[in-house]
Amino acid sequence: MLEFAKAQGWEFSFQAQPLPLASVFNNATFGPALLVAAQVELSLRKIEVDLGLVVQEDNGAMFGRRVEFDPARSHLLTQMWRLTQTAYQVDLLPREQNRIVLDLVPAALEPYEAPALQAGQ
Hints:
Blueprint: H1 2-8, E1 12-14, E2 17-19, H2 21-24, H3 31-44, E3 53-57, E4 65-69, H4 76-92, E5 95-96, E6 99-101
Parallel strand pairs: 1-6
Antiparallel strand pairs: 1-2, 3-4, 5-6
Helix pairs in contact: 3-4
């Protein structure tokens, strides 16, 4: 993801402070939230793809969660899905002064409950 972000020329900020790419795409900073958001997006679209994520609580992590990839569930196609879906999530984020603003990203780690479908939907 770091190489892709460099190639795209992405620059990021969080709470109005610029961030280096390595601080964004990290398994204990924004990585867990971006990947969880990507997995939720796929689920909402009813695209049955498992990104092979193992998200664990970690008090030392920036937002209390760390992400790892389950080797038994990770293969080339899974890696491609992670890359494209994370890039999609980043593209949805607001921009300010040519920087992608990450202030909303931690919300992806909040418990998610799908809305109940009404009859006839």
